[in-house]
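Input structure tokens:
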């Protein structure tokens, strides 16, 4: 269905910053309530948009099947190749470079840069004339405009519903509010070849093709059916991710319990090793030089048994730790998708994230009650008794 464009009287900024109504064009939105200024803690709140390897901003962020996000540099330097450097899960691509871009985090980085310009004390400069201080931000053009350039902008786009807001109003808001508002202005474009480049807006979703369509494609091509509203589909996908995330939270408890048991087992094995070493030394030191050789053999046997048990526990600990890290990354990504993702990002990323979350759902923690208890050192005790 064609999108309805509503026009409202525009705000005209005179040289003194006063406002007067113009006859045509969009009006800059003013916040519904006055929000207090926030201290510069944006970097702390949005650390999640950085590469999880180097902790730096990057325009080339990749989303792995384990739901960790890494830049191309970290993936290229990763040793061994083909594994996630965070949780060591295998990367299915032969090149070791995932194909899925984390468009959400890349978009948030760009929008946060805009907010940082707004929050500076001097304020941003006009994107067009480059000379005057900006007074308005147009979210459609993604440009800062001074008073003069904003008047020209209003006249040029008087037939379009561009959304513009005053920089001083944006500066009074938090970064969270700014990101939420900029998300709402994004549109989905038709997925048919050539239509995306023409900027054809889509409000229809074809359940058969699993694609967003413009009105022309939906009406002229009989192959597409049944239809639903694109906003309903994006909402359904968000809810589907939320449901899977809630189920994973419950399963995470069993993994955490297994991880705790394995940690306690590893600590007990270390303690048993230390106690046995001390006992061996106390007994063997009472003997003559001939017995020293037997002491070394016993110590070597204890070390071999301990090393074998340690390797097994380390392997299982890494497996469980990797699963926990993937679950945490999945929960965090679903949360940020719900808070900040545009509909385009939901449409592009949701199937990939859903597959990864469903794979996590199929994991089960290793059973621990049937595990052989380490640290009894029966053979060592028998030989020590013989001495």
């Amino acid at each position: 269905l064609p999108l309805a464009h509503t026009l409202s009287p525009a705000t005209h900024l005179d040289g003194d910053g006063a406002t007067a109504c113009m006859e045509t064009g969009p009006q800059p939105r003013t916040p519904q309530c006055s929000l207090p200024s926030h201290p510069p803690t944006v970097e702390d709140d949005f650390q999640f948009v950085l590469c999880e390897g180097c902790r730096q901003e990057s325009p080339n962020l990749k989303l792995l099947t384990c739901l960790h996000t890494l830049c191309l540099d970290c993936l290229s330097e990763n040793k061994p190749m083909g594994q996630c450097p965070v949780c060591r899960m295998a990367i299915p691509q032969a090149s070791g470079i995932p194909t899925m871009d984390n468009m959400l985090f890349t978009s948030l980085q760009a929008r946060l840069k805009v907010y940082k310009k707004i929050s500076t004390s001097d304020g941003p400069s006009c994107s067009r004339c480059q000379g005057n201080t900006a007074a308005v931000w147009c979210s459609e053009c993604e440009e800062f405009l001074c008073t003069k350039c904003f008047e020209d902008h209003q006249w040029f786009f008087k037939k379009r519903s561009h959304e513009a807001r005053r920089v001083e109003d944006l500066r009074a808001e938090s970064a969270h509010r700014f990101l939420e508002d900029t998300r709402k202005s994004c549109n989905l474009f038709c997925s048919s070849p050539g239509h995306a480049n023409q900027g054809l807006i889509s409000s229809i979703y074809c359940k058969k093709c699993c694609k967003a369509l413009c009105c022309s494609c939906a009406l002229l091509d009989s192959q597409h059916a049944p239809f639903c509203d694109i906003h309903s589909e994006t909402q359904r996908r968000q809810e589907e991710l939320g449901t899977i995330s809630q189920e994973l939270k419950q399963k995470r408890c069993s993994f955490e319990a297994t991880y705790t048991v394995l940690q306690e087992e590893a600590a007990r094995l270390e303690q048993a090793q230390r106690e046995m070493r001390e006992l061996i030394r106390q007994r063997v030191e009472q003997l003559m030089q001939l017995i020293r050789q037997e002491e070394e053999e016993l110590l070597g046997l204890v070390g071999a048994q301990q090393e074998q048990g340690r390797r097994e526990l380390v392997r299982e600990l890494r497996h469980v730790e990797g699963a926990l890290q993937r679950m945490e990354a999945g929960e965090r990504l679903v949360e940020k998708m719900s808070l900040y993702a545009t509909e385009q990002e939901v449409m592009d990323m949701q199937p990939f994230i859903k597959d990864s979350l469903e794979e996590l759902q199929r994991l089960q923690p290793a059973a621990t009650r049937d595990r052989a208890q380490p640290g009894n050192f029966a053979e060592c005790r028998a030989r020590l008794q013989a001495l």
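The chain has eleven helices and ten strands. The first strand starts at residue 11 and ends at 13.
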